[in-house]
TrEMBL record:
UniProt xrefs under PANTHER family: EEF1A LYSINE METHYLTRANSFERASE 1
GO MF, one annotated term: nucleic acid binding
InterPro entries hit by this protein: DNA_methylase_N6_adenine_CS (IPR002052), Efm5/EEF1AKMT1 (IPR019369), Mlase_EEF1AKMT1/ZCCHC4 (IPR041370), SAM-dependent_MTases_sf (IPR029063)
Catalytic activity: L-lysyl-[protein] + 3 S-adenosyl-L-methionine = N(6),N(6),N(6)-trimethyl-L-lysyl-[protein] + 3 S-adenosyl-L-homocysteine + 3 H(+)
UniProt GO cellular component terms: cytoplasm
Protein name according to UniProt: N(6)-adenine-specific DNA methyltransferase 2
Length: 211
């Protein structure tokens, strides 16, 4: 019988697949029925191959609040590889601050002119309109826990910021963060929507509300 040659999925695999498709349909349905907010965290799903792990809603709100206070009225905020903070800032629909997102993932180009394609391997390959020292604060979350990644991202941060830096990275990077950016660890413990194996921390180089 020719049917014998057709590979069959086990009942367990089939059930898991059906569950996956159902969840996907439900997510799409929620997006449509709730007047979907393109800036909500999770509107663009994590891509683990790009080392993406979104902050929890509470952490993103806390970091967004901190960035707003640090930037001041009319301030400019740059989010480098930190889309969760960018999305939370955009939810505010604020008129008294501006924000842009520097990201390698081109899915974030849906955010229009505020999106800047960014590859940390080319830290100063930036558009001409991103002038040096033109942001009141830079919020950055380098994608990889390596000194090379932190060092290169640091070049970008130092180019963009007028002075204030809010860095989010692993606790193991404390020494390198101090070396490359002069930042100190905060008491605030950032959380992710999915638990990470590595302990994560925030670092700043100014008197912040995160202590």
């Amino acid at each position: 019988d020719d049917d014998d040659d057709i590979p069959q999925l086990s009942s367990h695999t089939l059930a898991a697949l059906q569950e996956f498709y159902l969840e996907q349909q439900q997510r799409e349905g929620m997006k449509t029925s709730q007047g979907f907010n393109q800036y909500s965290i999770g509107s663009i799903e994590e891509d683990w191959q790009l080392s993406q792990f979104w902050y929890s809603d509470e952490t993103a709100s806390c970091l967004a609040n901190e960035a707003l206070v640090a930037a001041g009225k009319g301030g400019r905020i740059a989010c480098v590889s930190a889309p969760s903070v960018y999305q939370k800032l955009k939810e505010r629909d604020g008129k008294d601050f501006s924000v842009c997102i520097l990201e390698y993932d081109r899915r974030f180009s849906v955010y229009g002119e505020e999106f800047v394609f960014y590859d940390y391997n080319h830290p100063l390959k930036l558009p001409e309109n991103l002038l040096p020292h033109s942001f009141d604060i830079v919020v950055a979350d380098p994608p990889y826990l390596s000194e090379e990644c932190l060092q290169k991202t640091s070049e970008t941060i130092k180019y963009l910021t007028k002075g204030k830096i809010l860095l989010c990275t692993g606790a193991v990077m404390e020494e390198q963060a101090a070396k490359h950016l002069g930042v100190k660890i905060c008491k605030f413990i950032p959380k992710h929507s999915r638990n990470l194996a590595n302990e994560f921390r925030c670092y700043v180089n100014y008197a912040s509300g995160l202590d």
